[in-house]
């Protein structure tokens, strides 16, 4: 009799928004894409903040019917284009899509449906100091809200000042600025026994 006992995820981890970069102003861009059906009705959104957590811009957009990976890639591309056009060249870009981040960072093969989008992102990243990293969805809640807002509203919306940002986002922004951590709690799973006999 072979018995395997497994206990998993009884930990709590946290991530804070604010990062410190000595010698240069660092900006942080959180992006997200969503698709209701994959493929289905898709939207994207994101928020660019300074190194103190204050918003510079935020947007939500409707993309039409696409897969989640297309929506995630398009959201990154759309915000990178805005950053380059407006002179933001020292930016940490975070997405909760590990698949897309790995494709951009050349850690995995690019899906044929998004090879053009990933190619455009990789071409644009040569225009500045752009770093791509994965974050948990709990840290990406602002961008997630904006992506869903774009999909539901089926329109493009652009925000440039804190006063124009939807009230639902202001508490999340306040928590980020104050350094309140976002928690990811993995419930402890029940133990199980596997018997191959």
UniProtKB/TrEMBL annotation:
Q: Which Pfam families match?
A: RVT_3 (PF13456)
Q: Which domain of life is it from?
A: Eukaryota
Q: Where is the RNase H type-1 domain?
A: 23-152
Q: Which InterPro entries match?
A: RNase_H-like (IPR053151), RNase_H-like_dom_plant (IPR044730), RNaseH-like_sf (IPR012337), RNaseH_domain (IPR002156), RNaseH_sf (IPR036397)
User: Under what name is this protein listed?
Assistant: RNase H type-1 domain-containing protein
Q: Which Gene3D superfamilies match?
A: Ribonuclease H-like superfamily/Ribonuclease H (3.30.420.10)
Species per Swiss-Prot/TrEMBL record: Solanum pinnatisectum
The taxonomy runs: Eukaryota, Viridiplantae, Streptophyta, Embryophyta, Tracheophyta
Recorded GO molecular functions are:
nucleic acid binding; RNA-DNA hybrid ribonuclease activity
